[in-house]
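User: Second chain of the day. Same drill as before.
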Amino acid sequence: ARELPIIWKITKGSLKNKLLFLLPGALLLSEFLPQAIIWILMLGGAFLCYEGAEKVMEKLGGAKHGETLEDEIKDPVAFENKRVGGAIRTDLILSAEIMAIALNEVATETLVTRGAVLALVAVVVTLVVYGAVGIIVKLDDIGLYLTEQASNAKQAFGRFLLRMVPKLLVALSLIGTVAMLWVGGGIIVHGTHEVGFHAIYDIVHGAEYAVRGAVGGAGGVLGWATYAALSAVVGLILGSIIAFVLHKVLGVGAGEGH
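Assistant: Same format as last time:
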Protein backbone atom coordinates (compact mmCIF):
# COMPACT_ATOMS: atom_id res chain seq x y z
CA ALA A 1 0.00 0.00 0.00
CA ARG A 2 2.96 2.35 0.54
CA GLU A 3 4.93 1.53 -2.62
CA LEU A 4 3.43 4.05 -5.06
CA PRO A 5 3.05 6.84 -2.45
CA ILE A 6 6.74 6.45 -1.57
CA ILE A 7 7.75 6.57 -5.24
CA TRP A 8 5.56 9.65 -5.74
CA LYS A 9 7.28 11.36 -2.79
CA ILE A 10 10.69 10.66 -4.34
CA THR A 11 9.46 11.78 -7.78
CA LYS A 12 8.31 15.13 -6.38
CA GLY A 13 11.61 15.50 -4.54
CA SER A 14 13.51 14.75 -7.74
CA LEU A 15 11.57 17.35 -9.74
CA LYS A 16 12.14 19.88 -6.97
CA ASN A 17 15.87 19.10 -7.01
CA LYS A 18 16.11 19.57 -10.75
CA LEU A 19 13.81 22.53 -11.38
CA LEU A 20 14.24 24.68 -8.26
CA PHE A 21 17.91 24.10 -7.41
CA LEU A 22 19.91 22.47 -10.19
CA LEU A 23 18.40 24.27 -13.19
CA PRO A 24 19.11 27.82 -11.93
CA GLY A 25 22.51 26.72 -10.62
CA ALA A 26 23.45 25.11 -13.93
CA LEU A 27 22.44 28.19 -15.91
CA LEU A 28 24.43 30.49 -13.61
CA LEU A 29 27.49 28.24 -13.92
CA SER A 30 27.21 28.04 -17.70
CA GLU A 31 26.93 31.82 -17.90
CA PHE A 32 29.63 32.87 -15.43
CA LEU A 33 31.85 29.87 -14.61
CA PRO A 34 31.59 27.22 -17.37
CA GLN A 35 34.99 25.74 -16.51
CA ALA A 36 33.53 24.49 -13.20
CA ILE A 37 31.13 22.09 -14.94
CA ILE A 38 33.73 19.36 -15.50
CA TRP A 39 34.74 19.47 -11.82
CA ILE A 40 31.11 19.14 -10.74
CA LEU A 41 30.76 16.16 -13.06
CA MET A 42 33.81 14.54 -11.48
CA LEU A 43 32.54 15.18 -7.95
CA GLY A 44 29.30 13.45 -8.88
CA GLY A 45 31.26 10.64 -10.54
CA ALA A 46 33.30 10.19 -7.36
CA PHE A 47 30.06 9.95 -5.36
CA LEU A 48 28.77 7.23 -7.70
CA CYS A 49 32.07 5.37 -7.30
CA TYR A 50 31.76 5.61 -3.51
CA GLU A 51 28.16 4.38 -3.49
CA GLY A 52 28.97 1.46 -5.78
CA ALA A 53 32.14 0.47 -3.92
CA GLU A 54 30.37 0.57 -0.56
CA LYS A 55 27.67 -1.77 -1.86
CA VAL A 56 30.35 -4.16 -3.09
CA MET A 57 32.13 -4.06 0.27
CA GLU A 58 28.87 -4.73 2.12
CA LYS A 59 28.16 -7.71 -0.14
CA LEU A 60 31.64 -9.05 0.59
CA GLY A 61 31.00 -8.90 4.32
CA GLY A 62 31.98 -5.34 5.13
CA ALA A 63 30.20 -3.34 7.82
CA LYS A 64 26.73 -2.03 7.00
CA HIS A 65 26.44 1.64 7.84
CA GLY A 66 23.28 1.97 9.86
CA GLU A 67 19.75 0.64 9.70
CA THR A 68 18.79 -1.55 6.74
CA LEU A 69 15.78 -3.63 5.74
CA GLU A 70 17.45 -6.59 7.44
CA ASP A 71 17.08 -4.91 10.85
CA GLU A 72 13.94 -4.72 12.96
CA ILE A 73 11.95 -1.62 12.00
CA LYS A 74 10.63 -0.10 15.22
CA ASP A 75 9.01 3.01 13.72
CA PRO A 76 7.77 2.35 10.16
CA VAL A 77 6.83 6.00 9.52
CA ALA A 78 10.22 7.33 10.63
CA PHE A 79 11.99 4.57 8.70
CA GLU A 80 10.01 5.39 5.53
CA ASN A 81 10.76 9.10 5.86
CA LYS A 82 14.43 8.36 6.39
CA ARG A 83 14.60 6.12 3.30
CA VAL A 84 12.72 8.68 1.19
CA GLY A 85 15.02 11.47 2.40
CA GLY A 86 18.07 9.36 1.60
CA ALA A 87 16.72 8.56 -1.86
CA ILE A 88 16.07 12.23 -2.58
CA ARG A 89 19.60 13.18 -1.46
CA THR A 90 21.09 10.49 -3.72
CA ASP A 91 18.80 11.66 -6.51
CA LEU A 92 20.20 15.18 -6.10
CA ILE A 93 23.68 13.90 -6.99
CA LEU A 94 22.43 11.81 -9.92
CA SER A 95 20.25 14.69 -11.12
CA ALA A 96 23.22 17.05 -10.97
CA GLU A 97 25.12 14.61 -13.21
CA ILE A 98 22.23 14.43 -15.68
CA MET A 99 21.82 18.20 -15.78
CA ALA A 100 25.57 18.79 -16.14
CA ILE A 101 25.79 16.29 -19.01
CA ALA A 102 22.79 17.89 -20.73
CA LEU A 103 24.26 21.36 -20.17
CA ASN A 104 27.55 20.24 -21.67
CA GLU A 105 25.72 19.30 -24.88
CA VAL A 106 24.07 22.73 -25.28
CA ALA A 107 26.81 24.90 -23.77
CA THR A 108 27.07 27.06 -26.92
CA GLU A 109 23.32 27.75 -27.20
CA THR A 110 21.57 30.88 -25.91
CA LEU A 111 20.62 31.16 -22.24
CA VAL A 112 16.92 30.70 -23.05
CA THR A 113 17.60 27.60 -25.14
CA ARG A 114 19.81 26.12 -22.41
CA GLY A 115 17.09 26.73 -19.83
CA ALA A 116 14.37 25.17 -21.99
CA VAL A 117 16.47 22.10 -22.79
CA LEU A 118 17.42 21.53 -19.16
CA ALA A 119 13.81 21.91 -18.00
CA LEU A 120 12.63 19.43 -20.64
CA VAL A 121 15.37 16.95 -19.71
CA ALA A 122 14.51 17.33 -16.02
CA VAL A 123 10.83 16.56 -16.46
CA VAL A 124 11.15 13.79 -19.06
CA VAL A 125 13.97 11.92 -17.31
CA THR A 126 12.23 12.09 -13.92
CA LEU A 127 8.88 10.84 -15.23
CA VAL A 128 10.43 8.06 -17.32
CA VAL A 129 12.73 6.82 -14.54
CA TYR A 130 10.22 6.85 -11.70
CA GLY A 131 7.39 5.69 -13.96
CA ALA A 132 9.52 2.63 -14.77
CA VAL A 133 10.27 2.14 -11.06
CA GLY A 134 6.55 2.30 -10.29
CA ILE A 135 5.78 -0.39 -12.86
CA ILE A 136 8.58 -2.64 -11.62
CA VAL A 137 7.54 -2.52 -7.96
CA LYS A 138 3.91 -3.31 -8.86
CA LEU A 139 4.71 -6.28 -11.10
CA ASP A 140 4.13 -8.71 -8.25
CA ASP A 141 0.69 -7.17 -7.57
CA ILE A 142 -0.11 -7.45 -11.27
CA GLY A 143 0.98 -11.10 -11.16
CA LEU A 144 -1.21 -11.78 -8.13
CA TYR A 145 -4.18 -10.13 -9.85
CA LEU A 146 -3.69 -12.27 -12.96
CA THR A 147 -3.57 -15.52 -10.93
CA GLU A 148 -7.11 -14.76 -9.76
CA GLN A 149 -8.54 -14.44 -13.29
CA ALA A 150 -10.58 -17.13 -15.05
CA SER A 151 -8.23 -17.50 -18.04
CA ASN A 152 -5.62 -20.24 -17.70
CA ALA A 153 -3.22 -18.20 -19.80
CA LYS A 154 -3.57 -15.18 -17.49
CA GLN A 155 -3.10 -17.38 -14.43
CA ALA A 156 0.04 -18.93 -15.91
CA PHE A 157 1.48 -15.51 -16.76
CA GLY A 158 0.60 -14.26 -13.29
CA ARG A 159 2.45 -17.17 -11.67
CA PHE A 160 5.42 -16.45 -13.95
CA LEU A 161 5.49 -12.83 -12.77
CA LEU A 162 5.35 -13.89 -9.12
CA ARG A 163 8.33 -16.20 -9.62
CA MET A 164 10.24 -13.73 -11.78
CA VAL A 165 9.92 -10.45 -9.85
CA PRO A 166 12.13 -11.35 -6.84
CA LYS A 167 14.87 -12.51 -9.25
CA LEU A 168 14.42 -9.33 -11.30
CA LEU A 169 14.84 -7.12 -8.23
CA VAL A 170 18.02 -8.95 -7.19
CA ALA A 171 19.35 -8.62 -10.75
CA LEU A 172 18.52 -4.90 -10.85
CA SER A 173 20.38 -4.38 -7.58
CA LEU A 174 23.47 -6.05 -9.07
CA ILE A 175 23.14 -4.21 -12.39
CA GLY A 176 22.66 -0.91 -10.55
CA THR A 177 25.85 -1.41 -8.54
CA VAL A 178 27.87 -2.26 -11.65
CA ALA A 179 26.33 0.69 -13.51
CA MET A 180 27.27 3.11 -10.71
CA LEU A 181 30.89 1.94 -10.84
CA TRP A 182 30.99 1.95 -14.65
CA VAL A 183 29.36 5.39 -15.07
CA GLY A 184 31.18 6.96 -12.12
CA GLY A 185 34.51 5.53 -13.24
CA GLY A 186 33.85 6.60 -16.82
CA ILE A 187 33.18 10.18 -15.71
CA ILE A 188 36.45 10.20 -13.76
CA VAL A 189 38.39 8.73 -16.71
CA HIS A 190 37.00 11.35 -19.10
CA GLY A 191 37.16 14.20 -16.58
CA THR A 192 40.79 13.70 -15.63
CA HIS A 193 41.66 13.72 -19.32
CA GLU A 194 39.75 16.99 -19.82
CA VAL A 195 41.65 18.72 -17.00
CA GLY A 196 45.07 17.62 -18.26
CA PHE A 197 45.81 14.33 -16.47
CA HIS A 198 45.92 11.80 -19.30
CA ALA A 199 47.39 8.63 -17.77
CA ILE A 200 44.16 6.87 -16.74
CA TYR A 201 42.40 7.86 -19.97
CA ASP A 202 45.28 6.61 -22.09
CA ILE A 203 45.40 3.24 -20.30
CA VAL A 204 41.64 2.63 -20.51
CA HIS A 205 41.24 3.73 -24.11
CA GLY A 206 44.49 2.06 -25.12
CA ALA A 207 43.10 -1.25 -23.88
CA GLU A 208 39.80 -0.57 -25.67
CA TYR A 209 41.54 0.08 -29.01
CA ALA A 210 43.84 -2.92 -28.55
CA VAL A 211 40.83 -5.24 -28.07
CA ARG A 212 39.05 -3.69 -31.05
CA GLY A 213 42.02 -4.32 -33.26
CA ALA A 214 42.59 -7.88 -32.05
CA VAL A 215 39.14 -9.46 -32.40
CA GLY A 216 37.95 -8.38 -35.82
CA GLY A 217 34.20 -8.18 -36.43
CA ALA A 218 33.18 -8.16 -32.78
CA GLY A 219 35.75 -5.47 -32.00
CA GLY A 220 33.24 -2.69 -31.47
CA VAL A 221 31.23 -4.55 -28.86
CA LEU A 222 34.21 -6.12 -27.09
CA GLY A 223 36.12 -2.85 -27.19
CA TRP A 224 33.22 -1.04 -25.54
CA ALA A 225 32.92 -3.86 -22.98
CA THR A 226 36.63 -3.48 -22.20
CA TYR A 227 36.21 0.27 -21.73
CA ALA A 228 33.17 -0.25 -19.48
CA ALA A 229 34.90 -2.94 -17.41
CA LEU A 230 38.06 -0.90 -16.89
CA SER A 231 35.98 2.18 -16.05
CA ALA A 232 34.20 0.09 -13.41
CA VAL A 233 37.57 -1.02 -12.01
CA VAL A 234 38.65 2.63 -11.80
CA GLY A 235 35.35 3.39 -10.06
CA LEU A 236 35.77 0.53 -7.61
CA ILE A 237 39.33 1.56 -6.71
CA LEU A 238 38.43 5.23 -6.25
CA GLY A 239 35.21 4.43 -4.39
CA SER A 240 37.02 2.05 -2.04
CA ILE A 241 39.60 4.72 -1.24
CA ILE A 242 36.86 7.27 -0.52
CA ALA A 243 34.95 4.79 1.66
CA PHE A 244 38.11 3.89 3.60
CA VAL A 245 38.97 7.54 4.24
CA LEU A 246 35.41 8.43 5.26
CA HIS A 247 34.71 5.46 7.53
CA LYS A 248 38.12 4.39 8.83
CA VAL A 249 40.10 7.63 8.88
CA LEU A 250 37.47 10.31 9.47
CA GLY A 251 34.85 8.10 11.18
CA VAL A 252 32.02 9.47 9.03
CA GLY A 253 28.91 7.30 8.71
CA ALA A 254 29.43 5.09 11.74
CA GLY A 255 26.00 4.22 13.06
CA GLU A 256 24.21 6.27 10.41
CA GLY A 257 21.77 4.99 7.81
CA HIS A 258 23.06 4.17 4.36
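The helical segments are 3-32, 37-59, 76-105, 111-137, 139-147, 152-194, 199-215, 219-249.

User: Great, on to the next one.
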